[in-house]
Write a structure and sequence with these properties.
about 120 residues, WH-like_DNA-bd_sf, Arc Repressor Mutant, subunit A, two-stranded antiparallel ribbon, single chain, transcription
C-alpha cells in the first residue's frame, strides 16, 4: 500500500467517525485523569482513587468505559485487578497534547465553541 492509499484510508468517513469517537472518549476530564494516573505505572482501583482524588464508583465506571473502548487493559494480581494503558501510544498522545497546549493554551482557553 502506498503512502497516498494510507492517507486516503485515513480520510474515509468511517475512519473519521472512529477518530471523532476516540477524541470524544478522551474529552472527559475524569477519564483523562485516570489515563494520566496510568501513564507512569499500572495501578489498582484504590491506587487510582488515591492518585486522582476521584470517588471509587466514578473511577470504576470510567475504567469500564476505558476498558470497553480498548484504551485500558487489566490483569489479576492476587486479589486485586491491576489496570494499565492498553497501548503506550496513549501516553504518547497525552504527552503530545501537553506539548501542543504549551503553544496553543491561550487560544484553547479562549475558545467558546467547546465549552460544557
Amino acid at each position: 500500500m502506498t503512502a497516498q492509499n494510507i492517507q486516503d484510508d485515513l480520510s474515509a468517513p468511517d475512519t473519521l467517525e472512529l477518530r471523532a469517537k476516540l477524541f470524544r472518549g478522551l474529552s472527559d476530564p475524569s477519564r483523562l485523569t485516570i489515563l494520566d494516573a496510568l501513564v507512569s505505572d499500572e495501578r489498582n482501583v484504590q491506587e487510582i482513587v488515591g492518585h486522582t482524588g476521584l470517588g471509587q464508583p466514578n473511577v470504576s465506571n470510567h475504567l469500564r468505559c476505558l476498558l470497553e473502548c480498548g484504551l485500558v487493559s487489566r490483569r489479576s494480581k492476587g486479589r486485586f485487578v491491576r489496570y494499565r494503558l492498553a497501548d503506550r501510544r496513549v501516553a504518547d498522545l497525552i504527552r503530545d497534547a501537553d506539548q501542543l497546549l504549551a503553544s496553543t493554551a491561550n487560544g484553547v482557553d479562549a475558545c467558546q465553541s467547546y465549552t460544557d
